[in-house]
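Support reply, case 0932

Customer input (verbatim):
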Amino acid sequence: MGNQTKVTKFILLGLSNDPQMQIFLFLVFLVVYLITLLANMVIMLVVRTDSHLHTPMYFFLSHLSFVDICYSSAIVPKMLWNFLAEHKTISVNGCFAQMFFFFLPAATEIFILSAMAYDRYAAICDPLRYMEKMSKEVCALLVSGAWAMGFINATINTVFALKLHFCGPNQISHFSCELPSLLPLSCTDTVTNHVVLFTSVVILGSSSFIFTLVSYIHIISTILRIRSAEGRRKAFSTCSSHLIVVGLLYLTALFQYTKPSSVSSLLLDEMFSLQYSILTPMLNPIIYSLKNRKVKTAVGKMLGKFKFFKSF
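Our regenerated output:
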């Protein structure tokens, strides 16, 4: 190790090395990022200002929107910069910082989605005790727990990554410093890192997924016992948005981090990463706005007030 050069910067190869394609990609992902910021900020604002949305379900939704902003902001700004930069570099410390702030909201989002599943379970399967089960204190505890689990996950994986040594090559075949793309560049053994990463995904991701799945098995079973077709429709409508969001995240993220190396490819890895780290944070508020009548009504009221003030 003594004669090897220590890497101080990494080169993010990104999605394309064609200058014209990079300009096109810059414009596309700039629009995606702006939509992500605007849509999630609108959700947070309407939940805060509309008294009809001061319920546990929308409390979790507003926190999900904040997490999505953090999630996307950990990746996209640097990505946009590199589309236009001549030297697409990131310092080693900057790479680890990006990794930490990617893991933090990613794990937090998984647990907030689990909290939202529990909220729907309590509302549909045990409505008489709903306000007791989902009190303000319980909701705050669930959100705090989600952030705590996200912090623990990010800290553990980043601390073990900091123990790695990099002595060349320094080109990351990805648009961000995701750990699976960084590990092949290490000139020291990465078995421990792979074990820690896989274990954290299995324990945190799979446990959250199983909890959400079991919750929805009970929810669907309860809904199917509702005699009224209109009652079943209303019950399903309160869950459909959450199911779509859960599916978008879990189907890509869990597969990406648990798939065997034999099925890994650069194109596949980048497609999955784009889905769960950039597209999902943009789609989540849109899905909730389109599938939820109360959110659509609240957004319409807010836009109506904006037009009213703009007329003066």
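We compared this against your earlier run and they match. Two observations from our side: The beta strands are 9-12, 89-91, 171-172. The radius of gyration is 21 Å. Please reopen the case if you see a mismatch on your end.
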